[in-house]
Each structure stands twice: as C-alpha cells, then as structure tokens.
Design a protein that fits this description.
The chain is of the alpha+beta class. It has 4 helices and 3 strands; from the N terminus they run ααββαβα.
C-alpha cells in the first residue's frame, strides 16, 4: 500500500524563513525606531510642553489687519510692553489642548508597547471554577 499524506521530509519552508514583506516591515520599523530614538529627548520635551498645553502668540499686522504668529521672544516682549508696542497693535494668545495620544504612540513605537496585565476572575471577582462534565 502507498504512503499518502502526512509530513514529508524537506517539504515546506525552512525553519526561520521570513517572507520578503515581513523583512521589509522589520526594516521599516527599525528605521522608524532609530529616527525616533535619535530625537527622543527633543520630542519628550515638546510633548511635556504639549501636555501642559501649547501657547501661540499672534500679533495683528497693522498693514494687512491679519494676525501673524510671533515666535521671537524680543518681539513678544515688545508687543506686551506698552512703551515698545506699536500704537493700535493688538495681540492674541492661543492655547491648544494637549495631545497625549501622540506621545503615547511615539513611545510605543520607539520603546515597545508595555505589556498589558490581564487578570482572570470568576463571578464578582472570586476564584475561577472549572467543572468537568462526564
């Protein structure tokens, strides 16, 4: 009688084989991890500021009448100082809510997602009861 089916020696992919698409994903993850970790200190600082709420300073341009974002501390001080402010100048400070999800996502990608703890309990937090039926 002939041997049909079952495991055949040498059949299938070699142990440890990875598809080219898997290798490409691993390479992309490594590139992203390296880029993020190189700038991690800068990003953490930005996210700490983001967690407190980001503030933007806008000064109305007297020629156009439109608000323009000002980042130079000297210009901000001049706008806030009554003596240095231009006559009729108007400023506006805008505060943006924090984005905690962006920080969490960056850390998860750079340092791996923390393991989630799962606790299995029975009814009302009691012990798990197993019953065998015969």
């Amino acid at each position: 009688m002939a041997n049909h089916g079952g495991k055949r020696t040498g059949a299938g992919r070699p142990k440890g084989y990875k598809f080219p698409s898997t290798l490409a994903k691993e390479q992309a993850r490594e590139i992203a991890r390296q880029m993020i970790t190189e700038r991690l200190e800068e990003m953490i600082g930005a996210q700490i500021a983001n967690a407190s709420g980001i503030q933007h300073f806008f000064l109305r341009n007297p020629k156009t009448g439109q608000f323009e974002r000002i980042t130079d501390p000297d210009e901000i001080a001049k706008a806030l100082n009554a003596k240095g402010a231009k006559e009729g100048s108007t400023y506006w400070i805008f505060t943006k809510d924090p984005n905690v999800q962006a920080f969490t996502d960056l850390l998860n990608r750079a340092l791996d997602k923390p393991a989630e703890q799962v606790k299995v309990t029975g009814n009302d937090g009691g012990p798990v009861v197993f019953k065998w039926q015969e």
